[in-house]
Amino acid sequence: MVGQPVLDAKVVLRWCRAALAGLAEAREEIDALNVFPVPDGDTGTNLYLTLESATEAAERAHRENAALGPALAAIARGALLGARGNSGVILAQMFRAVADALGTAGDTATQPAVFAAALTKAADAGYAAVAHPVEGTMLSVARAAAQAATERAETGASSPDVALAAADAAHAALNRTPDQLEILRRAGVVDAGGRGLTVVLDALDMILTGRRPLDHPRTVTEHAVPSVTADTTVTVDTTTQASPAYEVMYLLDAPQSAIPALRTMLEPLGDSLIVVGGEPLWNVHVHVDDAGAAIEAGIAAGRPHRIRVTYLAEPLGRPEPNGGARAVVAFAAGDGLATLFESAGVTVVQTSVGRPSTAEMLAAIERSGAGEVVVLPNARDGIAAAEAAAAEARSAGVRVAVIPTRAQVQGIAAAAVHEPARTFDADVVAMTTAAGHTRHGAVTVAVREAVTSAGVCQAGDVLGVVEGDFVVIGDDVRAVAVGVVERMLAAGGELVTVVAGSESDRALADTVTDAVRRSHPGVDTVVYVGGQPRYPLLIGVE
To answer: Which of 18, 65, 172, 404 is most buried when burial is the number of CB atoms within 10 A of its CB?
Structure first.
């Protein structure tokens, strides 16, 4: 990277996006590492959900053209509102500390010493948030990263070099966690929350330096990162542990003066007590046997809301389904697509942004009321959100399978072969096969000059997409559309599905179907009006 990077709201948004993508990839691995403080296998999911909420706040701030300070404040609030579990609440407090440190730094925010000081404040805030800090956790990893950043900054290094030093030190500290915490040593794993923090710091390193983490492989010493499969569990000896039965979390509207008394009331009730935030909004987390008493303590301090009580006493593993009918939940990118899916009995998720959030997916799963649910994300960027929603739903006893549909036409193909009379596994296999055998393409129009896999395009150029890659650049939308479908049919096909963006795009869809009938008379075609934005045509070939 040439020159000193400018730390602004756009860079922070890129960091959030990169960290969210990293946690999406590592979520199952981190869940499998989760043995402390409770072996409930959800640390990766909790971190993902927390960062997803922060990233959504970053996206809103970007749309509002917020400056660095307001953008960081929005991210910190987003993380606070969406924080889940011990690790998520601690991460939210770290974001708040970074926001406080850099949001008021102005033009000095990029200076290495200021940047290192922000990481130090984040580590200190993490320790301060926990009633009884434990070494060998993400707290130790955060402190090691901050110390390395400070030492590197003192040598006159640049902020990217400071970020790299922090990321490397975090991985080294992660490798030491089994030597600091006996339960990790016995399980043969590193700390789950610490592993999640390395993902977040790797993302910062990548954004500031341009390096990708894979360019600098970092091992986890002899302590294994489990190979994750559908049945992965980590066996932990809990015979000597008397863990509380419930995790209680809630947001609390209360003055600063009420928090010391709240901590005093909650501490004797259990363990893993964390209170983060700042007047007037706090996030409270505690593990207790008496959930009612923990909530009453919040009522005494202020107004608790978004109360969440999770039973922790079940052993780690997949719960049995809760009964009820099977449902299919699918993301629809437009009103016409929503109507199409609903006519097939599908519970539809719609959103005003480009991908569904975990909360929207989870709400649709819950709305279906089914004990078995098949989820169709129908967008490449929606798969991670669907997986996180599925993990949450499974903890409530719902049997959920996510079919990784990357396009609306793949979801249409999968929904078409859904058969509730089959066994759940057989239905999932049939739907997965149908989606996997559907090649997907699209036609869109460039909004600015850009470098694509098909070459350089200018604003107004028509772009043809096949399997997510740009393959055609032209100035005639009909020629590009026909070119895309011909490329897709070169490998064979029996059915072409064309989804027009609007009624005005139906003529374009008719052009494609006419071309298919002339060149491939044995291939069937079907046309829908989907109402999807930005894409006059979506094309599927089965």
So the answer is: 18
